[in-house]
Amino acid sequence: MRASDDAKRKRSPPPPPTLPPSPPSPSVDGSTDPNSPQRKRNKWARLLLRELYDLGFNDAAAALEREACVQLRSSVMKKLQNLVASRQWDEALQLVMKTGDEREQLQMKSTLAAREAALLLLQRKFIDFLLLKQLPEALRTFQEEILPLCEPSEAEVKQLAELLLCRDADEMKQRTSMPWQDDELQLKLEELVSPEEIIPEGALRRIVQDVELQTPPPMMMGQVAGDCVEVLTSHKNDVWELAFSPDGEMLASASSDGSVVLWEIKWKEEAVGFSLTMELKTETLHVLQSLEGPADCLAWSPDSRFLLSSGSRSSTIQLWDRTSGLCEKRFQHPGGVVTKMQWLSCGDQFVSGSADKSLVLWNANENSIAYQWSGRRVLDVVVHPHDSKVFVLISGYEIRVYDVAHKSDELFIEADNVMSCLTISPSGKFLLVNFVKQEQLTCIEIATGSVVAKYHGIREQRYVLRPCFIGAHSELVASGSEDGKIYVWQRDNGKLAAELDGHSSVVNVVIRHPVHASVMASASDDKTVLWKQNNGHGVASLRKDSTAMQATYDTWQRAYSVEHFNKLCRGERRMQNNAVGRLCLRSLRLFKQLPNSPVTWLYLMILGSLAAVYGLLFDGWVRALLELRDYIIKSAGEYSFGAFIIWTMWCVGFGMLATCCGYYISPASDGSGIPTMRGLFAGVFQNPGDTLSFRTLVARSIGTVLSSASALSVGRSGPFTHIMAIIGYLMGKISIFQRVNYGQQNYNFIRAAVACGVTASFGSPLGGVLFGIEVTAKYYEIKCLWEGIICSSFCILVFNIITFTKSEVLFERTKFTGFDMDEEIFAFVLLGIITGIGAGLYCKMALVLRRIQARLLERFRLTKPSIQRRIFHVVSICLTTALISFPFGIMRIPDRVMINELFRDQTLSFPQWTQFSDSKHVTLVIYIVLKLFISILPCGAPLSCGVFGPLFTMGAAVGRYYGETLMELWSPHQSPATYAVVGAACFAASATQTVSTAVIFFELTGQLSHMVPVMVACIAAYFVSGIITPSIYDILASWAGMNSVCYDFNEHVLSQKAAKDYMATVPVIFTRDTTYEEAIQALNTFKKEEYFPVCDNAENKLLMGCLRRYDLEVGIARFLAVHRSGKEESKNAQVSTKIQNLISQVLDIDKKKSATVDNVSLLNFQPKETPTTSSMLELGPPFDEYEFTSIPVESYPPQVGEDVNLYRVHKLASISSWTQVYVVKFGKLQGVIHLDSSLTKLRKEDVPIRFS
Fold it and tell me: Which of 167, 731, 949, 1228 would suit a FRET pair with 966, their CA atoms being 20 to 30 Å apart?
């Protein structure tokens, strides 16, 4: 920890006292209990001793050291300083690294501190050798000690290397930033050792300064944080009134169910550390239930012996004995329903008011009426604490003062707005008035009748909310609100001091404890009475709520501030003001919990309808842009030079705009959506919020429209699948539909959205569902299949309802001749083989083109991601496509129009077929070759584009040419159009290596009679293509760095390999003692690690859980943001840019709020409210409950034994949606298998049989 400014002025350490041998240090005294009186005494003595040395009072410090029998430094620390002074670096290193005698081991703050201390010592040893001109010894120290033992960073290695080039000591001193003088090195080492060895410089001074900062002035109290001490939940209905007994030992609470509960309060003072805190305990003493209706009036006698109670529907006042809990007397109010009662300070009389225009003075002992005022409707009554005056709220518009002694009354205040209740301060100087419709409180000075301040912010429209004065001098005003919050203001200026979140419904009343000004109680319609305490500094802010729902990972992930986290934990919802709205919300929540919930059906219906509408709009936008392009080209001349320039500029311009969407809006929108979805379901993306964000939706939508409207040969089924997944994810975050934000449950919704996206592209519900499963899922829950089918069915239904959808389907309905099983089946098999070879050639050419593009980018020095690389890549493929497609009119025809032309059971009719030759077959061959080439160009390009549409088109062209050739050589029963349809299905199935494409064919054409030839041909194409190359989606996924989702190995190959042969060493292990500083260093050092195991300790390595990298980064960012005042500036450089961005997000949301923690040991000599990065990680369950700053722990990460084969390893990873699996032996961590690295290693050793 850094020293304060005053301490920095004294750069030399305090001199060691010249005394006889000192007694043992506190760390080795007879007491082992850190909280024992002797240990506490020694701690304070050492603090004073250090401060005396820091201030220069060496003689006084020496006297204190003799008298208190304590040492500033431990014997091991003294030995270390002597070794450093005498240049005995090896012996000093043994003390730091704990490799010597166990009795002489130096206690360091952490393992990172030990590493830093060892590096400092070895650096000085290295410098000493250089100063002595002993270069070989210096190099040996660097290579054999510094590098293996300390693992220095690149910057540290560079700095040490630069010292080798220095000519003298002065130049070394200028170039290095490490401690040069002995006293600087001593100070640096003191910062790294444990406080048990030596008290840090300026420790006592910092404690005193922090205490002064944490003690607020009287006018500012209420702006500090505290703890929720107790939540009382015995009531079965709304709690309407609270009352403390004057002695502070009892609390009475009244409920709308007619019950009055007496709570016994026990205060216990207990020494904790060096401070006194109070522990509040409550016990239910009596439950009083004899009222006719709701209870809402309570009043304690001045001696705290009796309690008066009544209700809003009762004219009876009951007198209860506190000790026995029995009703001693009943008072029948002469007018009617009682509105309020209050005891007078004499103790034997009380007053009561009623709504029938009467105020009654009662003799409690005689059960008789002493006096009665009539004629005015009484709404509220408060009694002055020091005289006989009674303030009465009359009819809501005036306040009158009744003098009980003289039996007189006078007008005090008359208002134009309705007043609801009154509260008088304990001193009797101020009166608090609540204006119900104005949603404001007004404080009035009683002596002068002047307004002190007005307080705004509460919501009060329907209920009477009772405020109170709080604080030792009534310097604060607190009130509940209908929004479930408690608002606290400064009394004299009306400024809002705090907003307390404790209840989930209307807060009816807030009262102050009569003895302890730091405690208050509040009651709400959520059936709870909430106690609050803040350790003696004003009003508390809520930190924990024992009635709250247990926090989950979903709660932690959704929270964006401490207050929001608390709200989510309490399950707060924004309720409608009217009863109908509340009934609807409660009904929806009930339906949501049912099996096959109606809410789930509603979600699927809406999602399917949105997919249909969005798909039609999408096609309409693309069609409008293409018609605009064709109109401009025709205006300039079909094949003129001007048309060529327009065609080229159109293609390049739209391509550049499409790639800019990915660069400036969201990089996750690039490429085909299928590999992205496959990676999402496989667990590649730890934070789906980036891949499925609204920004990605905008970028993907705009980019896909632009790329589809250009001349590029791209599809849009993959991008549209991603678009629908984003829409499904965002819909799933709506509270009505929400399951969880992360994990398999919500992924089922996203899988349904993927199926719906495929359906919206093809118009095939069952085929779309199967295709979505086949290309995106490594593991799929069959029980959730119905969700995808229902969603896709509603998508098709909406398509058919909208009138113009008939012309928007992918295929026109075909009416081919029925197929009879004969020799023509071999023709279809041959077609499958040909298309399989063609699809394999397509994938191989894509790999070759990728290598060529990489070499070109390397030649132009564009190897790193940048906007220049994007533009170069996209412009090159756009120019090439434009040059190829413009001269050939047949290449300008959109894919959808071309497919319908090829599927039409008649002669090819487009005039472009005879542009260069009378033979349509020649043009068809040219089209196939050119289409193959320009369809490969966009593969892997940094823009939103798909591949399925061009594959379909090429397959249709190949099948049509095959059918036309058969018609000339042999007269088959089937028309060439039939072979075009089968060719399209086979080519797409073989390139994507899916068989569900055949199902899509059956649904679109309705030709179930061709099931056998289509299935046989698709199987043949699948087989041939699988031998030659992986699927195009595997290739695209590998280009995106997602090798773990590329399953191009069969079960036999994987089952021959054992886990222990392919596991890697775990680079870093976390324990419960790992600090934030160590975690930050691990993130910076191991940037490719996505998971970090948690073990019991570094030696035993018993696997207890695992941390996701994303969760760890978010947890650290939240910790640093919440405790930013305790974050050391010197540690900022170690925090990555990503964590700094996460910190900024938290601070932007919650700029003016902060939270505190109470678990930092005093031995760290840090203020209790300011933890630093040296604090241990706040791990979530199973180690501790979730907090906003917790780091979630996966308590059972995927793990296997070391002899398990790789097939089972990969199967387990698929089920768990993880990209790695831990290898254990009897529960102890042995290594880890990364799916990426294991598959890469397999490819090098066991290459499947493929044609090259």
Answer: 949
